[in-house]
Amino acid sequence: MRVTKLEHAALVVEHSGDRLFIDPGKFTTPITEASGALAVVITHLHDDHWTPEQLARIRDRSPDVRVFGPAGVVAAAADAGIEVVRVAPGDEVEVGPFRLRFFGGRHAVIHPSIPVIDNVGVLVNDALYYAGDSFAVPEGVEVDVLAAPAGAPWMKISEAMDYVMAVRPKRAFPTHEMVLSRAGKDLSNARLGWATEQGGGEYLPLEPGDSFDA
């Protein structure tokens, strides 16, 4: 399957002409190439990970697309007139060539004054893992490719490094990086690259629009 990094936390996975979108939010360029989309996974309800407008653009080009997310996303999307299938940690769904397994359950703590919301990590075809806004490790899984958080209000780079070393992926690349300057991206890439190499893996310093085969 072909993985393309979009801006911030968004990804698109292509397999046999079908597409899976993950977390297309407000920091992602409006998605206009969405024909063949079978599914969208939204890890949690924050709008840097999804907006009704992004989902509407995808649905305009792929009317039968199915959207999956945790309970908070289901409720928020319903208010916008969008149907989302609820998923929770431990669930498994197959949509065309995509096998989706869900992990985690809770968003990382931003600050004690801010409520902690639900959040699911997703493993695609037992190869690509993305934990949303969390450091949830998929227990019992050997991760081929990890989307590793590079910068966010809920993390510091040492935590992301420890997370990468706990997962020990064969390959890793940065996500959630639109809150960083160019200098910040370079710093995060250096630290996450080091952490990936500690487990014998390869780090891919992807920029928006870059693709690779998983």
TrEMBL record:
Record has Hydrolase as a keyword: yes
Transmembrane parts of this sequence: none
Annotated ranges, domain Metallo-beta-lactamase: 7-176
One of the Pfam families matching this protein, by short name: Lactamase_B_3
SUPFAM superfamilies named in the record: Metallo-hydrolase/oxidoreductase (SSF56281)
UniProt superkingdom: Bacteria
Residues in the signal sequence: none
GO molecular function, one term: hydrolase activity
Keywords: Hydrolase
Family annotation (InterPro entries): Metallo-B-lactamas, RibonucZ/Hydroxyglut_hydro, UPF0173_UPF0282_UlaG_hydrolase
Protein name per its UniProtKB record: MBL fold metallo-hydrolase
